[in-house]
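Postdoc handover notes: sequence design on the structure in folder B. Input tokens:
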């Protein structure tokens, strides 16, 4: 049985457990599957002593369900759609939208291309066409400098949507929050890098 399969047996009630318990379970999953220490180069070009590959969790069946439930609960009440820059945000946006249907609070999903589609409509935004002024929240897996989510914000605003909030799974606390504040955007995160480091240290101590 591999590591991902072992995680499935840890909690059989991801769909129904309370959100506080679910948040702790997701933190544990992120530390076990996504958080790695070593020498890495980030997409921003920065050197880092750790790396967070959230796709190990966002593409995990129970991880995706947990993320969908937790982030849906963080959305402003008037949110009609969630969106994010491909590729990191794709499974997150989809998870939130699917969970919203189950909770009778339907939220549309939009995916923002990095480059315009090379054929057909040549669109930057994939998903249902919504009316101008529709409130859209941008979702992100890991925020470092904040540039990726800002690309999504600008594309959505150019399309006429109202974007005032960004929500991330993990904030590395390396300038992203400050960038969003300077742009007049509200920023919320499920976890900070300090949360992951502290939880990882506890796990390592417990194994000794």
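Designed sequence:
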């Amino acid at each position: 049985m591999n590591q991902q399969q072992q995680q499935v047996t840890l909690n059989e009630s991801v769909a129904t457990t309370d959100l506080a318990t679910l948040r702790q379970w997701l933190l544990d999953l992120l530390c076990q599957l996504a958080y790695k220490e070593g020498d890495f180069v980030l997409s921003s070009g920065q050197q880092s002593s750790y790396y967070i590959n959230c796709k190990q969790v966002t593409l995990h069946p129970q991880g995706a369900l947990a993320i969908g439930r937790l982030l849906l609960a963080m959305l402003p009440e008037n949110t009609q759609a969630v969106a994010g820059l491909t590729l990191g945000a794709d499974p997150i946006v989809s998870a939130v939208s699917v969970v919203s249907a189950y909770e009778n609070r339907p939220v549309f999903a939009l995916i923002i291309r990095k480059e315009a589609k090379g054929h057909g409509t040549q669109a930057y935004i994939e998903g249902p066409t919504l009316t101008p002024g529709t409130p859209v929240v941008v979702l992100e897996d890991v925020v470092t400098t904040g540039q990726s989510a800002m690309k999504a914000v600008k594309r959505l605003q150019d399309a006429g949507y109202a974007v005032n909030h960004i929500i991330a799974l993990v904030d590395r606390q390396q300038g992203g929050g400050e960038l969003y504040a300077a742009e007049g955007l509200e920023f919320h995160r499920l976890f900070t890098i300090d949360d992951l480091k502290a939880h990882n240290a506890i796990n390592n101590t417990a194994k000794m």
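Context for whoever picks this up: The chain has eight helices and eight strands. Don't rerun without checking with the PI first.
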